[in-house]
Design a protein that fits this description.
Blueprint lengths: L1 E7 L1 H5 L3 H10 L3 E8 L3 H7 L9 H8 L4 E8 L2 H9 L12 H5 L8 E3 L3 H11 L1
The structure holds cytidine-5'-diphosphate and magnesium ion.
Cytidine-5'-diphosphate binds next to helix 4.
Length: about 130
């Protein structure tokens, strides 16, 4: 069994897609074992996106992720990390497969509705940040 960290990001919470996104995970056999709504502080955002802090698009990410509440959750299941990345779809909604969260709900490559851990190591690191 694996654990992974998901963030439902401001654009999705603002447009009332929390329930629809959670349903996609549950329908695919993943179990929600922790869940909370919060405002991401600059400090949390910088820790979470440490690998992107130096990138040109980072100020945009920071403004976006802190502008309104997010939902943080832990999902558990077999191959949860890869499964959730597949359910979420490609970073850019133009490239996201049909029926994925980003295909259905993302606004743009930046405002792309969800985050999910990309490896066992990042899942462990990110769960500690948010829970
Ligand atoms: O979220 P994911 O792991 O699919 O993508 P990432 O490459 O780790 O980038 C993290 C987040 O930064 C993305 O989900 C976007 O919100 C944002 N981003 C962006 O605004 N512009 C880019 N060119 C790349 C990423
Ligand atoms: Mg990433």
């Amino acid at each position: 069994m694996e654990k992974t960290l998901v963030l439902i990001k401001p654009d999705a919470v603002e447009r009332n897609f929390v329930g629809k996104i959670l349903a996609l995970y549950e329908e695919n056999g993943l179990k929600i074992t922790e869940l909370k709504m919060l405002n991401a502080t600059e400090e949390l955002a910088k820790t979470h996106y440490a690998e992107h802090v130096e990138k040109p698009f980072f100020p945009e990410i920071l403004a976006y992720i802190t502008r309104s509440p997010i939902v943080a959750l832990i999902l558990e299941g077999e191959d949860a990390i890869a499964k959730v990345r597949a359910i979420n779809g490609s970073t850019d909604p133009k490239e996201a497969a049909e029926g994925t969260v980003r295909n259905l709900y993302a606004v743009s490559k930046s405002e792309n509705s969800v985050h999910a851990s990309d490896s066992v190591e990042s899942a462990e690191r990110e769960i500690k940040i948010w829970f």
